[in-house]
């Protein structure tokens, strides 16, 4: 990945994080922690890996993305707005009554959203179905699914994983946002899902690891996954919940809480300072 592309991705991801905070603050509701941890991944996928057309969101030949951890939709909305799927002004109306951007993704009401999600475990199942449909149709589009690590506690995830491997769905790439925290605390304390990599291998998946906040690491993992034939792939990416905002990082309490005005202003000041450094 060249320096110009890297800097572009960093600037875009920083803006995504600013938008996430603005969305949740304006709604006085939402899930900032996991949205911040997955911002780099969604930025990378839409800018580098995925074949999409913002002017034709329903284009049959597009790649699909299923945000299985649907509560982190503020990050997805921010990316879609930057890509031009809808007007950025919509971000200010996140979770507002009658507005387009709901608290969880709605495929019927939001351009660019490929699957309605929110009930954990169901998104990866839908993604598996999409990948099977592409295989059945002989289509060359790919399916990407983004899961949370706490979400792996859902048995439905492993049913989907078993099914995907059985049908050799090599057009499916999943990413596990392994920030180590869920609403009730540390994933390892609530109900450990570790070792994540060995579990997916046991279910017949090709496994890669990545730093969820390093674009070169993400690029290496996703690019390698695209070359795999005969089995689905998963990228287990280590990330930081609340990434980019000092007082939110690695704090389970920011899973589903909106900042007050003082906290919002501090968070935005930190992100803007980080953005300014990228321009140097």
From TrEMBL:
Q: Where is the Transketolase N-terminal domain?
A: 10-269
Q: Does the keyword Ribosomal protein apply?
A: no
* PANTHER family, per database record: TRANSKETOLASE N-TERMINAL SECTION-RELATED (PTHR47514:SF1)
For this protein, the record's SUPFAM superfamilies field holds: Thiamin diphosphate-binding fold (THDP-binding)
- Entry annotated with the keyword Metal-binding: yes
Cofactors that this protein relies on: thiamine diphosphate
Instruction: Spell out the PROSITE patterns in the cross-references.
Output: TRANSKETOLASE_1 (PS00801)
Q: Protein name, please? A: Transketolase
For this protein, the record's CDD domains field holds: TPP_TK
Q: Which UniProt keywords are given for this protein, alphabetically ordered?
A: Metal-binding, Thiamine pyrophosphate, Transferase
Q: Which family does it belong to?
A: Belongs to the transketolase family.
Q: Which InterPro entries match?
A: THDP-binding, Transketolase_CS, Transketolase_N
């Amino acid at each position: 990945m060249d320096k110009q592309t890297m800097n572009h991705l960093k600037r875009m991801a920083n803006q995504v994080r600013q938008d996430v905070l603005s969305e949740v603050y304006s709604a006085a509701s939402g899930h900032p922690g996991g949205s911040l941890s997955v911002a780099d991944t969604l930025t990378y996928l839409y800018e580098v890996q995925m074949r999409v057309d913002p002017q034709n969101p329903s284009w049959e030949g597009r790649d699909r993305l299923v945000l299985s951890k649907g509560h982190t939709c503020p990050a997805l909305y921010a990316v879609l707005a930057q890509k031009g799927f809808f007007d950025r002004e919509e971000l200010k109306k996140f979770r507002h009554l009658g507005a387009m951007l709901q608290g969880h993704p709605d495929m019927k009401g939001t351009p660019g959203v490929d699957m309605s999600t929110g009930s954990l475990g169901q998104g990866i199942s839908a993604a598996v179905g999409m990948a099977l449909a592409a295989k059945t149709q002989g289509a060359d589009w790919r399916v990407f699914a983004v899961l949370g690590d706490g979400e792996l506690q859902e048995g439905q995830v492993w049913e989907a994983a078993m099914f995907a491997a059985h049908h050799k769905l090599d057009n499916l790439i999943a990413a596990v946002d392994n920030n180590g925290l869920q609403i009730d605390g540390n994933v390892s304390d609530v109900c450990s899902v570790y070792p994540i990599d060995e579990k997916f291998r046991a279910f017949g998946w090709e496994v890669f690891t990545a730093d969820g906040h390093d674009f070169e690491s993400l690029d290496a993992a996703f690019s390698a996954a695209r070359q795999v034939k005969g089995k689905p792939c998963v990228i287990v990416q280590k990330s930081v919940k609340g990434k980019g905002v000092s007082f939110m990082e690695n704090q389970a309490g920011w899973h589903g809480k909106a900042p007050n005005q003082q906290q919002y202003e501090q968070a935005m000041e930190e992100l803007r300072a980080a953005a300014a450094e990228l321009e140097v």
